Amino acid sequence: MAYLGNTGGGAMPPVYHIGMQLGHNTVYPAPMNYGGAAPPQYGFSPPPMMMAAAPIQPLGCPPGLEYLTQIDQLLVHQKVNMAELALQWEMSNAYTVKNNMGQQVFVAAEENDMFTLQACGPNRPFIIHLHDNLGREILTLTRPLRCGSCCFPCCLQELEVQSPPGNPIGYVKQDWHPVLPKFTALNERMEPQLKVKGQCCDCTCMSDVVFEVTSLDESAVVGQICRQWGGILQEVFTDADNFGISFPMDLDVKMKAVMLGACFLIDFMFFERSPHHD
Q1: Phi and psi, residue 276, nearest 5°
Q2: Which helix (H) or strand (E) holds 256?
Q3: What is the DSSP letter of 255?
Q4: Looking at residues 27-51, what average pLDDT do you find?
Q5: Per-residue pLDDT tens digits for 152-191
Q6: Residue 23 DSSP class
Q7: Which DSSP symbol is given to 237?
Q8: Is the preceding omega at residue 164 within 30 degrees of 0, hence cis?
Q9: What are the E-state strand segments in the chain?
Q10: Residue environment code for 87-122, b if the CB has 16+ CB neighbours within 10 A, otherwise e
């Protein structure tokens, strides 16, 4: 729309023309705003992105373990490895760690080489890396090569728990006993904190297998690590296991992580079957 001003001597009303007009289509830039209020902006603006608030990191809690301060249960599901079923070769284990509502909390993957997998079977040393849903490695579990028989009390099983990687926060050590599977959970200073005691018979035939978490004198049960019966098909054709872990809500977050590590050690010691021996 162009405006034709007064070109004669007399007063003439302004005349406006709609559309492109010859000689009246010059475009001038908008004036700069120096110190004044910003001109109104028109058009659609996308709403701000809503993100879930991250838990506040308590004092003394390793980074990435904040979520463990809010729960008293964890579920550990081992993934079925189809290559292991087809080839009958031992493969590295992988797990999903969930809360009691079935929501994924961590994913765990074993790091190992093919020779160790085939030569050592369930007694193999391993490193298990646990990552949160953001892909951060928040726990590292290290199991050295140890004797698989209780006849050698000087070389029993143990596991180191690190968070963040490279920083030990606790240990799980097997206690010698002629019959019962027993363990001690220790803090980063190697001070005993809890005991874990299994059943005399680790028979898994159509029943759950419970490992009690107790006080040091074993007078009070404070939690448990339960290997859950997976059904006939899963038990016969795979070595994938499901575990439930319970502990006090106010238990130190580092010891909760150690209990999670104890679950993996128990899985390898008592429920991991080598395909060559099935």
Answers
A1: -70, -20
A2: helix 253-266
A3: H
A4: 49
A5: 677 799 999 999 999 999 999 999 988 899 999 999 999 9
A6: T
A7: H
A8: yes
A9: 2-4, 15-17, 73-78, 94-98, 104-111, 126-132, 137-143, 158-162, 168-175, 182-187, 192-197, 209-214, 221-228, 242-246
A10: eeebbbbbbebbeeeeeebbbbebebeeeebeebbb
d(CA 249, CA 73): 8
pTM beyond cutoff 0.85: no
**Nearest 10 degrees: Cα torsion 229, 231, 232, 237:** -90
Q: With 50 as the cut, is the pLDDT of residue 124 above it?
A: yes
Counting residues of the chain whose pLDDT is more than 70, the rounded percentage is 69
pLDDT at 178: 85
Going by DSSP bridges, is the β-strand pair 242-246/73-78 parallel, antiparallel, or unpaired?
Answer: antiparallel
Provide the token pair at 223: 């939690």
pLDDT of residue 2: 47
Structure tokens at 61: 């809690």
3-state SS class at 87: helix
Tokens 């700069």, located at residue: 32
260 Cβ neighbours under 8 A, 6+ residues apart: 74, 76, 97, 130, 139, 161, 245
